[in-house]
Design brief:
Number of strands: 10
Number of helices: 9
CATH topology of the largest domain: Globin-like
Radius of gyration: 28 Å
Structural class: alpha+beta
Helix content: 40-55%
Shape: elongated
Largest sheet: 7 strands, mixed
């Protein structure tokens, strides 16, 4: 339990309680001044490698033998990022580099009082993993097998981090599946997905016509204005077919890789800038969304979570398309 202050730290006089702006504070009659007690800053670090997060096992109270993020108090005169890297080094032996501030959270501890947790995302810059003086153990834990963390603020920050990375991990999984020539299980059961696949098939002509018109007026696709319309039609037709197969879960993933890699090689040989090819690809995605969401049935019946799932799958597909199209240019 945190101890209460009884004496003035400057003159030693007994303190009393006195109101200031509606807040009950400690007051020193001798110094005739209020004694403020502010939250203590606590720094934490999230270091993730291959979907494993670095944790330390506490070797002292509170929560001894519990796991937590590398954490500790910032020292007087120490900037907050330096404090985070110092605690990381002291508790795990790892030298880090700050990527960004992830989370700020208030926490009331029976042991220390009010705390302010600041959690940073860091990357390893050196050092060797080893438990420090303040920890009984330190090691990486898989994100789907994390132990219960000692501090609520740590749990909150880790949840926020995992949520922020899920789409990126899904994209990388899709790319890796393509490189390994494996298939994704069918997912056509989703009502929204089935509706959009049907819409793409039934509205293909309109989507293609709008895309070609967009190419003719968009400044970022000026090089496409010299391409014959039948050639453009054929390109967009094939892209829409790939999208429909992806959303329906009925496809050969190598076709996606081979199609866009070949498309990138062809655009490079024809002298197109890669920025022009990528812009043209993004306009296909734009026309699909504009056409689909312009339908009354889509606007009336689509639940928010289903819309999110649709956008997630579309994002994965077009990120793969960008990846392989760019690879075609590099080859």
């Amino acid at each position: 339990m945190k101890k209460t202050r009884k004496h003035c730290p400057y003159c030693g006089e007994n303190t009393v309680k006195k109101d200031e702006d509606g807040v009950r504070r400690d007051f020193c009659p001798a110094c005739r001044s209020f004694l403020y007690e502010n939250p203590l800053p606590v720094v934490s670090s999230i270091l993730e490698i291959r979907r494993e997060i670095l944790l330390v096992k506490r070797d002292r109270a509170p929560y001894r033998s519990h796991w937590c993020l590398p954490s500790g108090f910032a020292e007087t005169g120490e900037d907050i990022e330096t404090a985070a890297l110092r605690e990381l080094k002291e508790e795990t032996g790892i030298e880090g580099r700050i990527i960004k501030l992830l989370d700020v959270d208030s926490y009331k501890s029976r042991f220390y009082g009010d705390l302010l947790f600041l959690t940073f995302i860091v990357e390893q810059a050196g050092g060797i993993l080893a438990a420090g003086d303040d920890s009984a153990d330190s090691r990486f834990w898989p994100i789907d097998g994390l132990p219960t963390l000692a501090f609520r603020s740590n749990r909150h920050a880790v949840d926020a981090y995992i949520k922020s990375r899920r789409d990126y991990w899904a994209i990388m999984d899709s790319i890796n599946r393509g490189d390994k020539k494996t298939d994704r299980p069918g997912e056509a059961e989703n009502i929204l997905t089935s509706r959009l696949v049907t819409f793409i098939i039934n509205s293909k002509e309109r989507i293609i016509e709008h895309w070609i018109a967009d190419l003719a007026t968009n400044p970022s696709t000026a090089e496409y204005r010299t391409v014959p319309k039948p050639v453009l039609y054929n390109i967009c037709d094939k892209i829409l077919s790939q999208v429909a197969l992806w959303l329906g879960g009925i496809y050969d993933v190598t076709r996606i890789r081979d199609f866009f890699t070949k498309l990138g090689r062809e655009r490079r040989r024809e002298g197109f800038k890669v920025s022009q090819a990528l812009s043209a690809l993004s306009l296909v995605r734009k026309q699909i969304w504009q056409s689909a969401l312009g339908q009354d049935s889509m606007q009336r019946n689509v639940e928010l979570y289903m819309t999110y799932e649709l956008q997630r799958r579309m994002t994965i597909f077009f990120d793969m398309a960008v990846f392989y199209l760019t690879r075609g240019y590099e080859e």
